[in-house]
Amino acid sequence: MARAAGLARLACLATALVFGSCFEGQALWGERCETDADCGPDLPCQDDGVCAVERRCSGLTFDLQDVRPQVALLLDHSQSMRRCLDDPTERERCAQAVDPPGLSRWDGLVALVHTLVPEFADRIDFAAVVFPTPTLISEQGFCNLNDNSRVPFGTEDVSAAILDAVPEDIASPPIGENPLREAWSDLFPPLEDGLLRQRAIVLVSDNPPNCPTKPKIKEDIAEKLDGEVYPLVEASFASGIPTVVVGISVMDVLAPLLAGDSMIDDVNPHEYFNALALAGGAAQAGPEHYLHLRDTAALPQVLAGLRERLAPLAEQVDACRIGIDAAPDYPNLVALDVDGRMHRADPDCDDRWAWRWRDDTHRAIELCPAACDRLHAGAIARLRFGCL
Questions:
Q1: Residues 210, 266: contact at Cβ < 8 Å?
Q2: Phi and psi of 220, rounded to 5°?
Q3: How many Å apart are CA 384 and CA 336, to the nearest integer?
Q4: pTM score above 0.85
């Protein structure tokens, strides 16, 4: 008899979870309560004021900052970035303080960063690496960088921090070689809070990388390709992190094996950037798979191309779409608390304070309009995962 009664109570609870009936109290699992009478049979009101079988059930707490996508900016500050954007043969004059004949390549990069970072910083968590580190060039060689070149994710007022790290060329003249592989290292911190955040890399450079693992003297590296960068781009995309490649005044010519010509031997920069863009998974159609800031006139087009790639990431935040690293064991026993209001999933968002699963994988949720508005207004939300 006892076993039959227990099975009956379990059946009643299951029915209640689906149909919201079969008991005196009106609250279901995960909803607010004051006493056990507010909950269903065998569903007590816990000390934290929530109807739940056991308090040991896990949860995720987050705010808007926690769910923004992460985008790492890799910004080439090597000496060739002093060249004129509109005249690649002019090496220095566009970076001089007095009467420059036009924008330098670095000026073009500055224009991109100073436009896009403030535009998206409220919805995208940016980090930046400016390479190489100028203060290390005279002390340690042409390929070095350290943490002074990095603006990490989660930096307070990150927009101002990145703009400070990307000044005009007369304030910080480009210098040194291209240690892109070292700049690539440890870009993203591990995800440990149970949330999935979309991630991407934006590389802005004018030449292929040329700093090997252990450079000795400048003559050993200036005209040699670092072949280890391409596999890094492939591996990043395979792990779900695409790379958007922006080339600046990229030359479409195969460099000869000629010492002292400042070109990477036996490499066509245009073909290299094309291959890199394809490997990064964010290539554009046409003969140029990378975004090409070939001259000043191309600035609006490149800005539009970057906006096109960043906007979908920002839209996920606008719509409060949030990924989680693993589907819960009991997707029907998940509730969302925003501002002390606990709500079950509502596929149609008739309850504007509720939420819904994005698809049947149960790896992403979307907050309904009122809950989303509160998250954008600074509220802290909590997902509570049930267990039996």
A1: no
A2: -75, -20
A3: 6
A4: no
Residue 115: name the closest of 241, 202, 243, 198 by CA: 202
Instruction: Report which secondary-structure segment, H or E, holds 154.
Output: none
Query: Of all helices (H) and strands (E), which one includes residue 386?
Result: none
Going from N- to C-terminal start, the domains of the chain cover: 20-47, 68-318, 319-388
Structure tokens at 150: 């990095």
DSSP designation for 94: G
| Strands lying side by side in the sheet with 59-62 | 59-62, 381-385, 334-338, 341-344
Rounded Cα gap, residues 327 and 71, in angstroms: 25
pLDDT at residue number 187: 92
Q: How many CA atoms lie within 13 Å of 373's alpha carbon, on the beta-carbon side?
A: 4
Q: Does 20 have pLDDT greater than 80?
A: no
Protein fold of 68-318: Rossmann fold (3.40.50)
DSSP 292-326: EE-SGGGHHHHHHHHHHHHHHHHHHHHTTEEEESS
Q: Report pLDDT for 6.
A: 44
Greatest distance between any 2 Cα atoms in the chain = 96
Q: At residue 33, what is the residue type?
A: C
Task: Give buried/exposed letters for 241-265 (b at 16+ CB in 10 A, else e).
Answer: bbbbbbbbbbeeeebeeeeeeebbb
**Total residue length of the chain:** 388
Q: How do residues 132-177 score in pLDDT, each as one tens digit?
A: 877 655 544 578 777 778 999 999 999 999 999 999 888 888 988 8
- Could you read off the pLDDT of 35-85 as tens digits, one per residue? 888 887 778 887 667 777 655 456 788 999 889 999 999 999 998 999 999
Q: Are the beta carbons of 226 and 212 closer than 8 angstroms?
A: yes
Output b/e per residue, 29-55; b: 16+ Cβ within 10 A.
Answer: bbbbbeeeebbbeebbbbeeebbbbee
Residue from 221, 344, 251, 240 nearest 282 by CA: 240
Separation CA 359–CA 220 (nearest Å): 54
- For the chain, strand residue ranges (E) read 59-62, 70-76, 125-131, 150-151, 195-196, 199-205, 243-248, 291-293, 321-324, 334-338, 341-344, 355-357, 364-367, 381-385
